[in-house]
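For reproducibility, we list the full input for the zinc ion complex.
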Amino acid sequence: MKTSSLILAKKGVITWLSAVMFLLVPLSSAFSVPFPDQSAFEPYQYHTYQELTDELHSLQENYSSLMTVSSIGKTYEGRDLWMVKLSDNVDQEEDEPGVLFMAAHHGNEWPGVEICLFFIRYMLENYQNTSLPEIKNIMNTTQIYLLPMVNPDGVTADTRKNCAPNHGPYGKRSTVTSYGVNLNRNYGDPWFLAYLLPMRYSLPFIIPDSSFNYRGPYPFSENETKAVKVFAETHEFSISISYHSYGEFIVYPWMHTTKQTPDEPLFRSVGENISLMNNYYLMIKKDRLIPLYGGTLGSSENWLYREKGSISFTIEVGEERRPMDPQVIYDLCMTQTAVHLYLCQRAQTIEAEKTMLHHS
Ligand SMILES: [Zn+2]
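The corresponding predicted structure, in tokenized form, follows.
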């Protein structure tokens, strides 16, 4: 790829980002987004689990006052589930709103990992950048959590599910019938609905353990979802994104019904702003009667909203599961970094907005 075309394209993105931030963020000023170190992106390669592990720890060493990295659990194959926290006074739990970004519940969907890593580097490298005071302001007023690779076994094996052995829905532990659970079907939802509305909840695909959408024998049966559950129960965050690829659309609760949640106006407002920034399709809730097809049980954003009240989204980034063009990956990272900055700012007011909504 020619450098000149890269630079031109990036200048276009900057101008566009500045304009968007100005429109969407009335509280603080508009800000432009400078380019991080290009060397990481030319030629671009996805990070393996080991490379992610090394990079996170080296960043933590260089920015120890702004970043912690810790393991919230281990996979079946013994890999760590890394949790990154970014904030000032990062070792303390402060009375600051939290946001959460997660990626790679599905091990063959890699762009989200890069989006998280890019954002981590972006925040750290620009903390002292005096031409971008908003970055320091966001870091000083927000607790940012990232789970950049929820399914490292799946990423390593390049497979959708995790890699733990299955024993059938009612099987004996001694018999291995297949491998892997779809972690984004394993969260705690009203699982019994699958039996009441078998077509709507794709019963033929979530019960057989060999299926690509196998939901597991019971909610939170997997190490990875158990770890996310404990993490979520012990940390405060008011907005979250879980990254998947692909499709260029944004979804939010409820996922198991088309009913709107009591926080529909907030989901719509935040979701429409995200959509303006990344130009993805926001799948709004129509509040219809339950249709026959197309519901999801056991996905992360549904559970996070039910349990935490978090304004939680799933975003399917990109036009393909694994784009290889460095420019495409770079643009995904840049655009979603702008979305993250917006969400960190919106998190400052979201709880107050919720209170107003429910008392008006
Ligand atoms: Zn996915």
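Residues 330 and 339 are 14 Å apart (CA to CA). Confidence is low (pLDDT under 50) at residues 1-33. Both points were considered when choosing residues for closer inspection.
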